[in-house]
Design goal:
single chain; 292 residues; alpha+beta; nine-stranded antiparallel beta sheet; two-stranded antiparallel sheet; 9 helices; 11 strands; 18% strand; globular; signal
């Protein structure tokens, strides 16, 4: 995956594909690629928000209540089983409970890995797509389509080793997050139309909305792929967005005043997931392109 054009030709395909497994790539001042996985936002942002890693009983109960208003109890329970397992394993790295102002977060992936690996072995944990499907699986209708799961091998390995889903759910997961064929063009409108056409085959919830960051890839033919995804639901003060940042990095529940603020957050966070000859990433709200 040529996000920001990887400088080291010898990188293995596993790493290249992991870069779209809800991970971040950053480029240093000398133009080389830094594959450290962090979340970083400028202090100067065009949206206002508060966030929690749900690392306390009160914050868990608060988020659970909001999600349960729009999602079935079994899905919310399954999601929080994953949240609590992660937080109980690595929560000592400084994950937050109470909601606090959100502009810039950086998580210590090395410390997290040092806590996770001795307890979990070769199970890498779960990422944005797995958690989003966990929440939505009983709220959306997924047709029996031909799937292209070639970029989901890390996800599927995690699902198997963590016994996250059964065979039927895993197949539906692979269909929902399949690669979508596209053209060798940088015009986002062209790619967004193809993604709208693909996602229009699914019946989504109007309240628990799937917000996706779609990236353009030309590693093995021209295709589109959901590189990051989370769930947005209405709340008393606006909207609540829940996401698992990467396999390594934690869960975040973020309160936004408007849907547009959440769109801006995602657009800002992933704006550099591109490269020469590739279209810039774009946001989908369920099956509709978000034009910012």
């Amino acid at each position: 995956m040529k996000f920001k054009r990887l400088a080291t030709i010898g990188l293995c395909s596993t790493l290249l594909l992991t870069l779209v497994a809800c991970s971040q790539v950053q480029k240093s001042s000398d133009g080389t690629t830094d594959t450290s996985i962090t979340q970083a936002q400028s202090n100067q942002v065009s949206w206002k928000a508060t966030y929690s890693n749900m690392n306390s009983k009160p914050s868990e109960e608060e988020v659970r209540k909001v999600l349960a208003a729009y999602l079935d109890e079994d899905s919310v329970d399954a999601f929080f089983n994953l949240v609590n397992d992660y937080n109980e394993t690595v929560g000592s790295v400084g994950l937050t409970g109470d909601f606090s102002t959100f502009t810039k977060n950086e998580y210590d992936v090395e410390k997290i890995s040092n806590l996770w690996t001795p307890k979990k072995g070769d199970f890498v944990g779960t990422n944005c797509r797995i958690n989003s499907y966990c929440l939505l699986r009983n709220s959306i209708e997924i047709p029996k389509l031909e799937k292209d799961d070639s970029l989901l091998f890390v996800d599927n390995d995690a699902i198997d080793k963590g016994k996250v889903f059964g065979a039927e759910d895993k197949d539906a997961f692979d269909i929902l997050f399949s690669r979508v064929k596209t053209e060798a063009i940088t015009d986002v409108k062209v790619h967004a139309a193809k993604m709208e056409q693909f996602l229009s085959q699914f019946k989504f919830s109007e309240n628990a909305r799937m917000l996706s960051v779609v990236v353009h890839d030309d590693l093995d033919g021209q295709s589109l792929f959901i590189g990051h995804v989370g769930i947005l639901v209405p709340s008393e003060d606006g909207y609540l967005f829940v996401e698992k940042i990467t396999f390594e990095e934690p869960y975040q529940a973020i309160k936004f005043a408007t849907k547009e603020d959440c769109y801006k957050y995602l657009d800002t966070k992933y704006e550099n997931y591109t490269g020469e000859g590739l279209a810039k990433p774009f946001i989908m709200d369920n099956d509709k392109w978000v034009q910012l």
